[in-house]
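Researcher: I'd like a structural prediction for the single chain below. Treat it as a standalone chain; there are no partners to consider.
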Amino acid sequence: MRFRSSYRRASVLGAALAVSVGAGAAVAPVALAAPGAPGTRPSFCNHDNRSTPFAQYLCAKADDLLDVRIGDVHPTQPSLGYDEVYYKLGRYTLGKDAINKKFDDWCEADGRVAAASVSPGARLNDPSSFTCQLAVGAETADSIAAMKTVVIGPGGEPFLTDGHHTLTSFIETPDGGAGLHVRLRVQANLSTLTRQDFWNQMRAHKWVWLRDPNGKPVTVNKLPTGVGLANFTDDKYRSLLYFGRDIGYAQNGLPFQEFYWGSWVRDAKPIDLAKWNQNDHGSYLATVKALTEKIAALPKNTTVDNGFTAAELGALDQWNGGKAADKGEFDKLSKPYSDAKPGKLAYALEYKRVHNLR
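Model: Treating it as a single chain, here is the predicted structure.
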């Protein structure tokens, strides 16, 4: 079943699309003859070919909330932190929440905050079985800011620029899959550009991550063509940074923020990872603690990676927000799976144990 879309539809006939490539920049629309004029073809958002499999996305404009089939999105990074996805899948399948976290995550991704009501036996792929706190059309600036993002590429293909872990979790969960729909916020429509110019713009805006987990360059033709764990390599540094959120740094909306930090961990070696055991709760937790303490202690003008400073990458002024280890976010992360409210790390490790992924 297709979810309702709330994006604004551009005029199909006689319109030219100004292609947004960033704040304050645009490609001027092409002057077109009136529809039906002798020797002309009607315009379709500056596209003559409507047979592309992604034609339904061609007319999306910057800031539209676009209903997208998850199986259609093209990743802009070659790897994931698998343990982040394992946490989400653990929470979805082994969770102890009154309302399954997957419904909160879907509603947040769709721009509607969190789940409001969930029927017995509710499923992500049955939108009539649950409701979100906001109705479609009632989104707020804050709820839209939490949405994942997409750039419309040549032929209308949607390129995911944020949300690879979330959408992979949706595609991997039993009641999800490639046919599941969710809305994404459109950053730009670059569909009229050539492939080469499109990728030039993506690089210029830092909307693509072209390094593998070892720091080696990746060409755009080697990027995955869809989300799903099997399509990505595993980046252990990215996993480690995920569990350090709000302990050593805060998310600030910078695309690929945790990959920049992960590159610093790999290359600068601020801590010794030789004894880090990704399958042991105590070892993993101690490694997160050691790393986040280093991040919070960095001078804010320290260049971390690709010219970004510690301040620009969200480093906190104080470790764990100035709270002791048995308080705040680190305390939440520390909770074992046996606790009534397990921490994210515990869910990830329990999922790996149950599914023999160690």
